[in-house]
Amino acid sequence: MASQEVLDLIHDALTAHGISAIRGQYDVRLELEDLRFEAEVFDKEQRDTTHRLVLEIYIFSPLLDTQPVIESFVGMGDTRERALDQAFGKFLLGVFHVLIEGFAKHVCENMQAEIEFWQRDDTRWKIYGGPVITQAAVECTLNRTYPVFYARLEKLFAASVHPGSHFVRIFLASHGGALVGSEVLLDNQTWPEAQELIVGQDWHPATGTRHCARSFLRYRKRRLPKRVCWAPLRTG
Question: Taking burial as the number of CB atoms within 10 A of a residue's CB, which of 93, 155, 233, 234 is the most buried?
Answer without folding.
Answer: 233
